[in-house]
Amino acid sequence: xxxxxxxxxxxxxxxxxxxxxxxxxxxxxxxxxxxxxxxxxxxxxxxxxxxxxxxxxxxxxxxxxxxxxxxxxxxxxxxxxxxxxxxxxxxxxxxxxxxxxxxxxxxxxxxxxxxxxxxxxxxxxxxxxxxxxxxxxxxxxxxxxxxxxxxxxxxxxxxxxxxxxxxxxxxxxxxxxxxxxxxxxxxxxxxxxxxxxxxxxxxxxxxxxxxxxxxxxxxxxxxxxxxxxxxxxxxxxxxxxxxxxxxxxxxxxxxxxxxxxxxxxxxxxxxxxxxxxxxxxxxxxxxxxxxxxxxxxxxxxxxxxxxxxxxxxxxxxxxxxxxxxxxxxxxxxxxxxxxxxxxxxxxxxxxxxxxxxxxxxxxxxxxxxxxxxxxxxxxxxxxxxxxxxxxxxxxxxxxxxxxxxxxxxxxxxxxxxxxxxxxxxxxxxxxxxxxxxxxxxxxxxxxxxxxxxxxxxxxxxxxxxxxxxxxxxxxx
Length: 476
Ligand code: NAD
Known about the structure:
alpha/beta, Aldehyde Dehydrogenase, Chain A, domain 2, 7-stranded mixed sheet, 14 helices, 24 strands, binds nicotinamide-adenine-dinucleotide
């Protein structure tokens, strides 16, 4: 398979100005897949200049035209689904079914925002005093810097590119260093779909932080939309403050799962496996802490153990495997260290608990007797490890679930009325009730507390890239 391995600036693929490259590694075996261009400061500023140069014309392009380009990108991704998935598997290590699911999810943002591009709302009304008409219109915020993580290399890019382009903003996409090939492919798709030169640019700056700061400091950049860790999000927010750049932040999670008394155990296990093991556990929405009522604890542990043991671990390109590699040996070692610490803090291993050689693999793992407040409960695991704590009192489970600085996602399994009541008490931007997955381009995705600012998807996603303008008109 051939990959795009250059920067994309002003409608041209080009190597970095100093000719430096960095390796992209296949985590399933540690081999080098490609050498990707490293962007220098002058490349980053050239990308900003290209986006700035294209902003006026793209902002003035008709919504219908922008919509049609996005729709075409959706169609190309539909036609090239397998190739799209394969690129993700190669550089990210995920299992093929996870990559196909991401390919399907990622392309939907192009379809959804193709539909939203032509429905940007405005207002026209009489002021209460009757002296004027209040007109509220929306215009593109301007050049937007889009920074994405490695865990969903396609969907996190399309979830930002689609609303930005629909709104009429020009963009600079900065993918994670581990997964630039998927981002470069998406950029190529947009070019083929008809995005004009300069409207989408791709850079992979090294060193990352200082060069991103240079772009943020540029007067033309008016938006930063970031998905990644809370730690880096904080740094970007500090940087954005200096030039008062609008910031949307999709940050880390620490999703609790509450299994209520009377929960349907089949539904609970099916949903819990999805919530935990989708994308190999490397999801900001992944179930991180399971609080299971003591009446169901024994059954839950036995059934989860058996379901986890059914996972077939191995290279994602082998389609019979259902759990691929983590993105790197370093990430795998982080997971291994967390499991060790959990044991040191009193947890017992019911299943797994070891790395697997030959690639960045970790066994599906089940921990029980996890102490609430232990390290593994306070850290995003980002791997295939299920950590279970038994509880007696539902109010206590809710208190433990909310006892975190994160507030992205939570899950509740239980009888309908009680599960709904519990969902209202959880401090999370998203709650899945009796189901293991909820992401949908048509629904608002985002977190409370230190999990983020703003929402992606839904009708709100496009508003993050639009600036409101109030115009006062005389009545007569
Ligand atoms: P990360 O924060 O390390 O990196 C994310 C991006 O930021 C990458 O492109 C990286 O190169 C870049 N970056 C690194 N240092 C930077 C700096 N100093 N300034 C600016 N950019 C910098 O995150 P990751 O390890 O790639 O991804 C995992 C994290 O992402 C997890 O915490 C996960 O919860 C989070 N995530 C959140 C969501 C969400 O929607 N809330 C979705 C997916 C992942």
